[in-house]
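hey can u run this one w/ magnesium ion bound, need the C-alpha cells asap thx
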Amino acid sequence: MKNIAIICGGDSGEYDISIKSGRVVGAHLDRSKYKGWLLEVKGNEWFYEHTEGQKHVVDKNDFSLNVEGDHIRFDGVFNAIHGTPGEDGKIQGYLDMLGIPYTSCGVDSSALSFNKHLCNKFISAYGISVANSVTFRKGEKINPEEVIDTLGLPLFVKPARSGSSVGVSKVHTADRFDEAVQKALAEDEQVLIEEFIAGRELACGLVNKGEELIVFPLTEIISKKDFFDYEAKYTEGMASEVTPASVDADVEQDIKTLSAFLFRQMGCKGFVRFDYILGERGLYFLEVNAIPGITEESLLPQMANAFGMSITELFTIAIDNLFE
Ligand SMILES: Nc1ncnc2c1ncn2[C@@H]1O[C@H](COP(=O)(O)OP(=O)(O)O)[C@@H](O)[C@H]1O
Ligand SMILES: [Mg+2]
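ok here u go:
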C-alpha cells in the first residue's frame, strides 16, 4: 500500500476549486493500491486535517507527517493545486529536491506553461498561430490608445499567470480598458493583452501512461456568457461542453497530433489539457493547463469518460507513472 499525499489549496484565486479537486481525488483513489492523505498547502501553512479541526502540520524538512504517534512518509504526491505553487513549478522544485515523485509536469514545463506570455512565444516558434499580443509588468507605462490601435477591439486582458478566467476581461470599448488592467494586475504583476480570436473553442486532453500517450476525444466549449469566464466555468447551465466535439475528422486529427507534439516538446507529465480556438483563419493555440480541473464535471474527466476511462482509472494511470 503506497502513501500518496494529495496536495490542494494553493495561493491563488483558484484556491476553492483546488480544494474541490483534492476532495475528488481522495474520493476516487483506488483504495486497494493507495492510501490517500489530503494535505492543504496554503502559504507557509501545510497541514493534514485528521478529523474536523484537528490539524497536523507537515514537516517541510522531509515532507512528512506525525499523526497520533505514527511518522508518515509519502511515496508520491498527487498534485491538485491549480495556480501557484502547484501549477507554476514551485512545489515541483521542492519535491524534486527531496526526491519525491509527483503526478504533474516538472519545474520547467510547469513554469513555461503557466506563463501565458512565455508559453505563446514558445508555441509560436513552431509556426503555430497564437493571438497577437502585448505584455507589460506592474509599474511599466502602457498607452491604451496604442494598444487598441495595434490589437483592435474587442481585446482580452489577462494576468500572465492565472487560471479559471480569474482576472480575465474582454474589453469592448476603450473606456473599460483601465479597469480590465487593474483586475488583471490584482492577480499577477505581469499582464497579457491579446487580440480577440473569433471562433469555436476546442480542448484536447492527454495523459501519459509511461511512454505511451493517450489522447482523449476533443471537447467543444460553448459559453452562454460573452466568453468562457469564471461564472460560465462553474455555474450549472452557463456553458455546454460537447464531447466528442463535432468537428471535421481532419481538423480533429490535426488538433490531436499537435497536442501530442506539444506535450512531448514541452516535456509534460500526467494529464494535461491544451485549449484552442478554431477561427476563420485556422487553428489558434489558446493556452495549456498543466493542472486542469478534475472534478466529476470538469472537462478532462468528461473526455476520459468519452474515451471509456473512469476517473479512478485516470488517477491510477497518473499515480502508477511514478513507480515505473
Ligand atoms: N485571445 C482570445 N480570443 C478569444 N477568446 C479568448 C482569448 N483569450 C481568452 N479568451 C476567452 O477567455 C477564456 C479564458 O482565457 P484563458 O486564456 O483560457 O485563461 P484561463 O487560464 O484563466 O482559463 C477562454 O476560455 C476564452 O473563452
Ligand atoms: Mg482557459
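The first strand starts at residue 2 and ends at 9. anyway lmk if its weird
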